[in-house]
Structures are given as structure tokens and as C-alpha cells.
Design a protein that fits this description.
The complex is a heterodimer of chains A (157) and B (795).
Chain A lengths: L1 E6 L2 E6 L6 H8 L18 E4 L2 E4 L12 E3 L13 H8 L9 H14 L5 H7 L11 H17 L1
Parallel strand pairs in A: 1-5
Antiparallel strand pairs in A: 1-2, 3-4, 3-5
Helix pairs in contact in A: 2-5, 3-5
Chain B lengths: L15 H5 L15 E7 L5 E7 L1 H5 L3 E6 H6 L31 E2 L5 E7 L2 H8 L3 E6 L25 E8 L1 H10 L2 E12 L8 E7 L4 E6 L4 H13 L6 E4 L15 H13 L2 E5 L2 H5 L5 E12 L5 E13 L26 E10 L13 H19 L3 H8 L8 E2 L5 E2 L4 H11 L5 H10 L3 E10 L7 H6 L8 E7 L5 E5 L8 H13 L6 E4 L17 H28 L6 E4 L2 E4 L5 E3 H9 L14 E6 L8 E10 L6 E11 L6 H21 L30 E5 L17 H18 L13 H9 L2 H6 L1
Parallel strand pairs in B: 1-12, 10-11, 14-15, 20-21, 27-28
Antiparallel strand pairs in B: 1-5, 2-4, 2-6, 3-5, 7-15, 8-13, 9-10, 9-12, 13-14, 16-17, 18-26, 19-20, 19-25, 22-23, 23-24, 26-27
Helix pairs in contact in B: 9-18, 14-15, 17-18
Classes of the chains: A alpha+beta (157), B alpha+beta (795).
């Protein structure tokens, strides 16, 4: 079946099977491999994208449901090669990543948090990221990054 | 010189830009022309004979290209997966080392053992066909517990391994230890379980094999911590591919923790299948599949005793451990619970004599091998639980008993009774610093405050020491390593003075692209941004043993330092020629070569340029070019160590253990990048906390199934169940590595489980609790509290 949706601000048309998952569509068909798959069961959060501005886990979402929707992936965060999103900068500045595998999901989830709660407390960040696993960092610097990124997003807006 | 970023600085990581923009290049991201997709059919039985495998129905499905069985591989003379270390038992006999075929052909030995590999045009087609592979099993009785497997009448995994005993290993002077126990005033005895863990790096394993018949070239992309070792083991021993025709690439790898430092069956199968099909075959592990095919960690049952005199001084230690190997020997399996375990049982204490026996045992479970810390967390847990229990029994303060028995800084180098000699350390300073930072002095006030809320609060401490920086090859060889374990680095200076470093370690989160560039930037005075670190591709990098055992900076960084020395020497020779001066008169400082006592100087870039466009080099003595390679093999392990203190608060209504405060003071030697070291410690500590509080690879005895086989059942640490940690280094300098570095990758995981469990036991001490097994899960703690006779009497 043919679907048309907006992906990182551009219109996209794709031919998908009824069983195709959004994560597979992005990675295999559209070559956007920044969205990672770490568990296929919506447990780990590596696959989080934005659907109409809210974070969702793309590994259990059917591609067919994207018709007419707006999707943003980690590749669509930076305005250009030299203009990273404030949250991307914050993760880099605060050593909020090690192996980088969970990072796209962490970024997408964190940006959604800040869009809903511009000045989250540390506890709110930890609770919000409960669905995003990281095995490398112990989360401390991720939390620090999100707090710093939230401040940068407030300053930018 | 400007833009030199050297030792002690914390520049932002070079690798981060690609990761935060989604442009990392992981194996699952890679596409090859006309690539096919493979799915493994795995055994649902813990132990069964394979009577037949019928692939005919699977082959008829659309898109299916081939279905391979173990018999196909055997018929093609594919070898078994090799073991990198061979240990010998106390009777002098070598360990039992039964064959480990990549795909089982006669018998399956654990749930998850591969029995067939289906290749199709798409993953979905391969999955559908895998459902149609008919395997006729004759199910056999199984055994999953390490102690149970040794019992008379237990199911036998191998005809050639009586009683499932791979090796009955020991270390130490047993008569001396027994005599010390006879003379002791007090003996503390404990029994503990170091539970099975599943490493679960966030990136699942993946592999792509490709064969180009036109030139006989094989390529394997794999999620590996050591691509050269995979090339060596798989090429030479499994598939018989000449080394120069096999390229192994481990690109960005999403976490390893040991799980990816083995040569896995799937790597050999995709490469072999690619050669059969003449193209590329890709396999990406699903998480549920990873739970039953990634090598697991730990899984010990231990009885340990400590002999003390009337003053609480340690006299001797006696340990018997049962170590579960699973159904086959994984690459380093037998080495972990023996050589990386027993030699650490002295901890940071003076213990005159130590004896440790280890029975290494096969069971019908996933193979067990190294997982972050690998043997050393298990040793630390034994030592620190023994010490805490002895303190409790003898009425000595837990800090006082440690201080009373600690190796003083003045006693280093310190020879333990169990092989290793610690070159440097100051455990007392680490302990005292951690006590200050943790505000131990005010603990009782915090305990009272918790009690007022109806909660239990406990404080736990653990010291630790580890042996890392694998390896001193000579010692490793004596301990059974089947190859030396040096590291190599190549420093390629380009004509502009920019540098490419080719190094044999592998970066999968540790920040090598940054740390190693700092070393070169400082040594050669070259701007940080002009240095790139290349790793993970056997066609680019000369050779290397990879990254594990906290070895990358210690061994690889030292090789890089040595190669930098060679670059400086070569540069001085070029400068001597240019200046028509004597070599001895050329000094290299701050990125400039100068003639001593004059103002004649050339920059590093000028010398690099001259190296590549010479007109008049005396070629007999001075060749063009500026590129040097060095191999480094340490003379000893390094011994990072430290002290960790944690506080927990326990809610008796739920049994939930809340980690409230965590303090770590670690001696990691010279710190190159403080930001990265702190990150390594934070992550390591949380993995250890995961073991202490959450994680457990549980096998059902009846069915032989892994019960905790998903993230729903296997509880990983998450952001909302952890506090911020206070982490400070208190470093002594390693006496034998050129930069004084010791390594830091495993410290956190080694120090933390005992600190957390000691805190839990301390919290429940009022209930008469003297030991709690890991994980201290709500269910376990609730049961302890609610079955406590002390509590019942009080109510």
C-alpha cells in the first residue's frame, strides 16, 4: 500500500506492506538508520521518534498508520551540519553518551519532555526516561544533559 | 602550541558528532548489494539428540535461498569454535574441551543452541521459512544448576566429560591454609551465589558475511570488540580462510561489556553461508534471541571461610567455588572463574595464606564467559562479604576491621600469596577519602531519620582491587593463554603534520578517538583536531588484540606512546640532517625540533613535510616518510582499586531497596581524560548495582528454559531507580606503564555489588539478617522482612 507522510519536514511517499513497522521503513527503505532497534518490543526506547511532535516507539508502530502524519527522526533535529539542536549540543557537552546506540532515542524522548515541560526537575527527567535504556552511562550524565538541554531550549525560544 | 589538548584535559569527544546526529555506522545499518538475510532455528530443548532435520518445506517458500544444517557444515569440514585459554586441573590434567560446532549436528545442549540457518531474500521470508524447519528431537534429561550437575546420576552433557566436570582447578598452599585454620581464634564461613547475568549491550549482535568469488575475498562485518582475533580464530581454526583473504570489520559497536569479545558461531555461519551463495548474508540478532545466544556472565556458587586471630587480623582464606560454563566452552570461558578470580582473593588485605578450589562445570545453559569485571567482581564479592560477616560476628566496626588488615601504602609492591604482585596502590587513602565524602560520621542520624519514617537504612562499604590491562604475555602464557596479548599502534604522520593513528584496540563507547588523540597531541605537540584514530578494520589496522579487560589505554595507549617516541626519534634524525647537526644536539619540545643552545628550529609540520619530499636524505641511514609502529607488552597486570560506600533505604511494606547515596574513590592511575573516566565509573557502578539489586538470569529447573529472557523479565537498571553518584579519583601512579595508567573500565562493576549488598545486610541487621543473595529484589527482601522471627516477635 502507498502512504504519504511528512518526514523531517519533507513529503515522502512509500510503498509498504500492511505488516511493515515504522522502524523498518525508516531504516531499510528510507535509509535513515539513526533510529535504532534494540529490543523489538518497545522496552528499550532506542527507536523513539516523534509522531506529530510527540515521542513514540517506532519498533511496534505500523507504517501504514503514518498516512498524513508528521514524523521526525534524529536525522531531522539539526538545522544543518553546523547547527545542532540544543539537546544534541547538551548531550555532547555533558558526556551524555558513550556507545551512542541509545542516544537517538534518548534525544527524541528528551526533546519531547522539554516541549511539554520546559523546566523539568532531575526527578522528572529520570521518570520520563524510564522507558529509554542505556547500558553505558549509568544515566547520570544523560540526566545532566537533559537539564542543560532544557535550559538551552528555553534560552533559544 | 595552540590546540594541543593533552593529558588531564576533558575535550568533548570526537566520536559524539556522528552519534548525536544519527550518523553512526553500526553493523545493522550496513547494506550490501544483493544482500540476503539469515535467521537461525534454535533448539527449544535444553538437552536433546537431533534425530533428523527436514528442511524441504522451508525450501519451498518463496524467497528462500538456502537452509543450512550442522550436518552441512560438518560435511564441509567446518571446524569447531576454539577456546583461547586452556587451564589444567589440580591433578595436572588439561581441562576437558569437547567440540563446539557452530551449528549443532548430533545433540543440542541448551535452549538456544542453533540447529539450522535459513537464508532468504528478506527477513520476513527467512522467519516464515524457519518456522517450517522440522527438527526431530529425542529429548534427554537436562541439568541447569552448577552444583546439581556434579551430583551422581545427573544428566551427562558429554560422553567424554564424566560428571560434567570440565576441570577441577585450584590455587594456593592448601596445607598451610588448613594449618592456619586449625590455629585460628575465629572462623567466619559464608555461602553465597553470584548469580547469572545477561550482559545486554543496547546494540544486539549482528554479522554480515560476504564472499567475492572473483578474487576469493571474504569480508565479515561484525559487532565485535576484537576483529583481528575473530579473523585469526575464525579464519585459521573454523573456516580455513587464509588471513590475507579475510577482512573483518567491527565498525561502530553499541556497547560490548565482554559480551562481544568472543568468536561467536553466527560470525562463522554467515561467512560460510556467504561463500556457499557467492554474495552477502546478513543476520541481526533479536533481543529475545540475544538472551539465549549471547554468552552470559558470573553464575558461581561459593563456600568461603576466613580465619582470624583474637584481634580480628586475617590469618587465612579458604574458598571453594562451583563455576557454571553452560553447554559449551566459550572463547575465554574457563579462564574467567579461575585465573581472573582466585588471584584477586587477597583483595587489598594482608592475608598470609589463601587456597581456592574451582570446579568448572558444564550444564544445559547458555555458555558463560567474561562480562564486565569478569572474575574480579566475583572475587571482590567473596572477600568483602567475608570481611563484613567477620566484623559482624566479632563485634568489630566494619571500617576498623578493614583498616586493621589493609596493605599499607608503604608495603607496595606487594606480593600476594595468589600469584599476583600489586605494583602500586594506597587503599587506606581511598577508604578514608570515601568515608569523608560519604559523610559516614553522620550516618546514624540519617538512619534514625529513616527509622522515624518506618524504613530501614543501611550503610555498606566495599574495597576492591582488580588485575587488568590484559596482559603481560609471559604471565598469561603461564596461566594457560594460547597466545600473547600485547597491543599495537601505528602513528602515520601525513606530509602536513596531521596524523592518523591505526590501533588494534576497539572503541565501543570508551571514547578512544578522544583519549588516544590527547596522548598523541601532547606527545607530538600536534593540534587535537589534526589527529584521527582508526580502529576496527583488519584491512586498515596492522594487528591487535582488541578491547576487553580494561586493556585499551594500559596496553594500546602504551603502544601508542611508544610509537610516538619512535616518531620523535625519526623527526630528530630528519632535523639533524636538515640542520647538519648531530642527532644528540636535536631536542624536541612543544612541537618543535631545535638545535640545542641555538635559535634554529623547525616545527613538527615542517619536519613532516620534509620527510615526504626529501632530495638528499642519506638513504642508508635515513629513509623518507614519517610513520612508526610499536608493539607493547606490559611486564605485569595493572591493579586499579578503591573504596565504594553506599547507603540504601528499604521500605518494609514493598521490599523495595532504594539506593540513596553512592560514593566511589578509585585509584585508576594517571587520568588522561577526567570526563571520560568519570563516565566509565558511573556506567560501571550502575552495572554492578544492576547485579546487586535487579538482574538475574533465571533458569527453570523443570523445563530448562531461561525464564528471564526479555526486558520484561530481566530487570535492567533504569534512569528512575538510581541516585547521582559522587565519584573522585585518588590515584597512585602505575609503576610499570609508561604513562602511569592503570585502566578504569571495570572498576565500577567490581566495587559496587559488595558495597550495595553490605548496605542491604546492614539495613536488615536489626532483623537478625546476616546475608542476602543477589539480586536484592523487592520479592526477596519482602520475604526476608516478613518471615523474620525478630520482626514477628516485635509485633
Amino acid at each position: 500500500m502507498k502512504i504519504t507522510f511528512t518526514l523531517n519536514d519533507r513529503p515522502v511517499t512509500a510503498d509498504v506492506a500492511p505488516s511493515t513497522l515504522v522502524s523498518d521503513l525508516l531504516r531499510d527503505t528510507l535509509d535513515l538508520t539513526g533510529t535504532h532497534v534494540g529490543c523489538e518490543t518497545s522496552q528499550c526506547g532506542a527507536c523513539v521518534i516523534h509522531l506529530n511532535g510527540s515521542s513514540v516507539k517506532s519498533c511496534t508502530l505500523l507504517a501504514a498508520s503514518l498516512e498524513g502524519q508528521e514524523v521526525r527522526t534524529v536525522e531531522g533535529l539539526a538545522k544543518g551540519p553546523n547547527e545542532l539542536h540544543p539537546m544534541q549540543v547538551a548531550f555532547r557537552e555533558n558526556h551524555g553518551l558513550q556507545c551512542g546506540f541509545c542516544t537517538p532515542g534518548m534525544l527524541m524522548a528528551s526533546i519531547d519532555l522539554v516541549s511539554k515541560n520546559p523546566d523539568p526537575t532531575e526527578e522528572e527527567v529520570r521518570e520520563w526516561l524510564e522507558g529509554n535504556m542505556c547500558r553505558c552511562t549509568g544515566y547520570q550524565n544523560i540526566v545532566k544533559s537533559v537539564i542543560a538541554g532544557a535550559q538551552a531550549m528555553r534560552n533559544a525560544s | 602550541m595552540s590546540n594541543v589538548i593533552g593529558v588531564g584535559a576533558s575535550p568533548k569527544r570526537k566520536e559524539d558528532l556522528r552519534f548525536v546526529t544519527g550518523r553512526g555506522n553500526y553493523v545493522a545499518d550496513i547494506k550490501r548489494p544483493h544482500m540476503k538475510f539469515g535467521i537461525f532455528v534454535r533448539s527449544p530443548h535444553a538437552h536433546a539428540l537431533i534425530k533428523s532435520v527436514d528442511v524441504s518445506a522451508a525450501l519451498e517458500l518463496p524467497g528462500v535461498v538456502a537452509v543450512y544444517t550442522g550436518a552441512d557444515m560438518k560435511a564441509d569440514n567446518v571446524g569447531g569454535l576454539p577456546v583461547g585459554w586452556g587451564i589444567s586441573g589440580k591433578d595436572g590434567n588439561p581441562m576437558k574441551e569437547p567440540p563446539h560446532p557452530p551449528i549443532a549436528h548430533d545433540k543440542v545442549r541448551y535452549v538456544g543452541d542453533a540447529v539450522a540457518f535459513v537464508v532468504a531474500e528478506s527477513v520476513e521470508q527467512a522467519e516464515a521459512a524457519a518456522e517450517l524447519v522440522e527438527v526431530d528431537y529425542e529429548v534427554l534429561p537436562h541439568v541447569v544448576g552448577v552444583v546439581e550437575a556434579l551430583q551422581p546420576g545427573a544428566p551427562q552433557l558429554y560422553d567424554e566429560v564424566p560428571n560434567n566436570l570440565c576441570c577441577d582447578w585450584d590455587l594456593g598452599d592448601k596445607p598451610a591454609v588448613d594449618a592456619a585454620f586449625e590455629a585460628a581464634t575465629h572462623v567466619t564461613s559464608i555461602e553465597l551465589v553470584n548469580q547469572r547475568l545477561v550482559g545486554n549491550p543496547m546494540e544486539p549482535r549482528a554479522a554480515i558475511g560476504e564472499y567475492d568469488a572473483a578474487n576469493g575475498q571474504y569480508t565479515l562485518w561484525t559487532t565485535s570488540q576484537f576483529p583481528h582475533v575473530v579473523r585469526l580464530l575464525m579464519g585459521e581454526m573454523v573456516l580455513g580462510i587464509p588471513q590475507h583473504k579475510l577482512r573483518v570489520v567491527a565498525p561502530d559497536v553499541g556497547g560490548g561489556f565482554g559480551v562481544k569479545q568472543f568468536h561467536y558461531a553466527e560470525e562463522a555461519v554467515v561467512t560460510w553461508a556467504a561463500s556457499k551463495l557467492g554474495g552477502a548474508v546478513k543476520w541481526v540478532c533479536q533481543r529475545s534471541e540475544g538472551f539465549i545466544s549471547d554468552a552470559h556472565g558470573r553464575d558461581h556458587v561459593t563456600q568461603a571461610e576466613l580465619a582470624l586471630d583474637a584481634d580480628g587480623k586475617f590469618l587465612a582464606m579458604r574458598v571453594q567455588t562451583y563455576a557454571n560454563m553452560g553447554g559449551y566452552l566459550s572463547t575465554f570461558g574457563p579462564n574467567i572463574p579461575t585465573n581472573l578470580y582466585a588471584p584477586l582473593l587477597s583483595g587489598v588485605y594482608v592475608i598470609p595464606s589463601i587456597y581456592c578450589g574451582v570446579k568448572v562445570v558444564f550444564t544445559n545453559t547458555v555458555p558463560v564467559d567474561a562480562y564486565r569485571g569478569a572474575g574480579r567482581p566475583e572475587a571482590t564479592f567473596v572477600v568483602e562479604r567475608l570481611v563484613d560477616t567477620a566484623a559482624l560476628e566479632m563485634g568489630i566496626d566494619k571500617f576498623e576491621i578493614r583498616k586493621r588488615n589493609m596493605i599499607p601504602a608503604s608495603a607496595y609492591p606487594y606480593q600476594t600469596p595468589v600469584i599476583v604482585e600489586y605494583d602500586s596502590g594506597d587503599p587506606m587513602a581511598c577508604l578514608e577519602r570515601s568515608m569523608d565524602l560519604a559523610d559516614v560520621a553522620s550516618f546514624e542520624a540519617r538512619r534514625s531519620a529513616s527509622e522515624a519514617k518506618g524504613f530501614y537504612r543501611g550503610l555498606g562499604v566495599s574495597t576492591y582491587v582488580e588485575a587488568c590491562g590484559l596482559a603481560p604475555s609471559r604471565l598469561a602464557g603461564q596461566l594457560g593463554a594460547r597466545g600473547g596479548l600485547y597491543e599495537s599502534a601505528n602513528v602515520r604522520v601525513h606530509p602536513s603534520g596531521a596524523i592518523t593513528v591505526l590501533i588494534g584496540t576497539h572503541n565501543h563507547g570508551q571514547g578512544h578517538e578522544t583519549t588516544f588523540a590527547q596522548i598523541v597531541s601532547e606527545r607530538l605537540g600536534v593540534p587535537f583536531e589534526n589527529i584521527d584514530i582508526v580502529f576496527g578494520d583488519t584491512d586498515k589496522v596492522q594487528f591487535g588484540m582488541g578491547t576487553y579487560g580494561s586493556r585499551s589505554l594500559v596496553v594500546g595507549g602504551s603502544a601508542l606512546n611508544k610509537a610516538s617516541d619512535k616518531i620523535i626519534l625519526k623527526g630528530r634524525k630528519i632535523a639533524a640532517h636538515q640542520f647538519e647537526a648531530a642527532l644528540d644536539d636535536i631536542v624536541f619540545e612543544n612541537g618543535e625540533f631545535s638545535v640545542s643552545g641555538t635559535d634554529r628550529k623547525k616545527t613538527f609540520s615542517e619536519i613532516a613535510g620534509a620527510a615526504y619530499v626529501p632530495f638528499d636524505f642519506p638513504l642508508e641511514e635515513l629513509e623518507p616518510g614519517l610513520e612508526e609502529q610499536a608493539y607493547y607488552d606490559p611486564v605485569n597486570f595493572t591493579y586499579p582499586g578503591g573504596a565504594h560506600i553506599c547507603e540504601v533505604e528499604i521500605d518494609p511494606d514493598t521490599g523495595i531497596v532504594r539506593l540513596d547515596r553512592y560514593t566511589a574513590v578509585d585509584d585508576v592511575g594517571t587520568v588522561i581524560n577526567p570526563m571520560i573516566v568519570e563516565g566509565q565509573l558511573q556506567g560501571g557502578i550502575v552495572q554492578g548495582v544492576g547485579q546487586a539489586l535487579f538482574e538475574h538470569g533465571v533458569y527453570d529447573e523443570q523445563s530448562g528454559q531461561l525464564m528471564s529472557g526479555s526486558f520484561m523479565d530481566y530487570c535492567m537498571p533504569r534512569a528512575d531507580n538510581l541516585p547521582n553518584m559522587v565519584i573522585q579519583p585518588h590515584s597512585t601512579t602505575c609503576a610499570h606503564t609508561p604513562m602511569g595508567v592503570k585502566g578504569c573500565g571495570e572498576c565500577g562493576t567490581i566495587g559496587s555489588p559488595a558495597a550495595v549488598i553490605n548496605a542491604v545486610v546492614d539495613a536488615l541487621k536489626p532483623l537478625g539478617v546476616s546475608h542476602v543473595d543477589m539480586p536484592a529484589s523487592p520479592n526477596r527482601i519482602w520475604n526476608i522482612i516478613n518471615h523474620s522471627s525478630v520482626r514477628a516477635a516485635a509485633e
